[in-house]
Amino acid sequence: MKSQKDLEKPIWDQMRSPSGNPIPGTGSSIRPAPKLMVWLILFVSVTYVVYTLKLVSTSRACDGEREPFSTTHRLSSTSTSVTSNITSEPSVQNQADAHRHIHKHESQELRVQRATEIHHIVFGIAASAKLWNQRKEYIKIWYQPNDMRGVVWLDDSVKSNETDNLPPVKISSDTSQFPYKNNKDIVQPYGSRASNVRWFVMGDDDTVFITENLVRVLRKYDHNQYYYIGSLSESHLQNIYFSYGMAYGGGGFAISYPLAKALVKMQDRCIHRYPGLYGSDDRMQACMAELGVPLTKEFGFHQYDVYGNLFGLLAAHPVTPLVSLHHLDVVEPIFPNMTRVQALQHLMVPKKLDSAALMQQSICYDKRRTWTISVSWGFAVQIFRGIFSPREMEMPSRTFLNWYRRADYTAYAFNTRPVSRNHCQKPFVFYMSKAEFNSTMNQTVSEYARHRIPHPQCRWKMANPAELDTLVIYKKPDPYLWDRSPRRNCCRVLKSKKKGVMEIDVGVCRPGEVSEV
C-alpha cells in the first residue's frame, strides 16, 4: 500500500504547475530555477561595483561648482527667500536663459527685502482754504520737506510762502461732473507719477503723523500686494453710520502702489455710483469693496472722534505704535498751560529720542507705599493710592465725551473705565517737562513735573503722592521694539536719595517679570 505521503505528492505537484499537470522529474534534486537566480544576483552585483567605481573616479567637483543638494544650491519658492542662496550653475545648453531668469528673480527679491523708508511714501493732505492759515501749523510740526514727498490739496487758492517748509499746494480739480459737493481728494494724490513710490498715505490738514512709526507699520506689509491700511473711529455710532470696514481719513490711511494704480483705473466710474456717501474716505471704502480689498486695521492711526480731554486715551495707549493724532482743533491741548501747537511741539522732544516707545504704557507698583504707577512714556505718569490691577489700568479713563457730546460709555468701540469719584483714588498726574539723552549712561532721562491742581483731603493712612514734585524716568532707546511680539514694557521703582523725587526705570521686561504686587 502507498503511504499517505505518496498519495499527497501528485496533488502537490499539480498545485505547483501553472498548467495543472505534474512537473516532469519532480523527484529530481536538480532544478534550473536556483541556478538562474544565482547568475542574476552575480550580474547585478558586478554591475553595481563597476558603476560605483566609475562614480568615485569622476566625483571631484570643478572649481566654483556647488554640491547639487547643498543649501546654497536650492531656490526658495517663497517671495521672501534670500537671494544669496541662488548660486547653482545652470546647464551649458540653457546657461544664458538661466542667468537671465536668476538675475530677474534676484532683482525682484531685492526689491522685497529692502526695508521701506520715508522716501518711499507720498503724502496726500486734504485741506480747507478757510482754515489753512491755522491748520498749516500742524503740518509744519511733522512734515520734513527735505526727506518727505507730498501734496496739499485745497478747495480754493491761498497765499503760500516757500519758506513755510510745507508740501506743494495744489487746487483740487473740477468735480462738477460728479454727483456730490465735496472735492475729489480721494484719488488725486494717487495719480502722482513720482518714482520709487511704495505707499500713498492720506490725511487731513489737522492730522499729525509720527512718521517714524508710520514707516515701522508699513514695513510689515508687502508693498507689491494690494493693501488698504488704517483704523476705525472711536465712536461706535460713527462706525455704524459709516462703516466698521472703513479707514477714517482724519486718522490717516495707507494704500499700496499697485492698489492705487488699480483704483485710478476705476475711480470715476466707482464714485458715480455712490452720490449719497458723505466723505472721501467713505467713497474710498466703497471703491475698495468693489475691488474686493478689505481694511487692514492698525490701531495706531487715531481718528479721535471725541471732545474734551484726550488724557485718558493717551495715558492708556494700546500696545501698538502711535502713528497719528487727529481732530486736534476740537480737543484740549494735550499738555496743560500750552497752546495746541506748543503742546504738539513739546511732544516731539521725546519723539526724537525714542519714537517707538512714545506714549507706550508701563504699569508697576510701589509696594512700600502701596501705590499704583502708570507710565505713558514721553507724555505723563499717574500715581494712584492703593492697588489697581493692570486689567483696569490698561482701560482708558473717560476724561472725554463722545462725538455727540454725551457722557455715554456705551458709545465707544472699545472698553473704558469711569473717572473715580473717590477723592482718595483720584490720580496724581505728572506731565513730561523735559527729556534728553545721556550718552554716558546710554539712555534717555525724562523728567515729569506734578500737575498742581487742588486735591481733596484724603483720610487714608498711607503715603501721600502730593509729597512728590518730580519723577525721573530712565529708559534705553529701543528702535526695534516693534520687531518683537507686542508686549508692554515693564517699570521698576528705584531708590532715590532726593527729597520729593521718585526715580523709575522703564524697559523690556526681564525673564519672569510680571506686573503684580
UniProtKB/TrEMBL annotation:
GO MF term list: acetylglucosaminyltransferase activity
Keywords: Membrane, Transmembrane, Transmembrane helix
Listed Basic and acidic residues bias regions: 1-11
A Pfam entry, by short name: DUF604
Region (Disordered) location: 1-28, 64-106
Source species, domain of life: Eukaryota
Listed InterPro entries: DUF604
UniProt KW Transmembrane helix keyword: yes
Residues passing through the membrane, by range: 36-53
Gene3D superfamilies linked: 3.90.550.50
Positions with biased composition (Low complexity): 70-88
Protein name: Uncharacterized protein
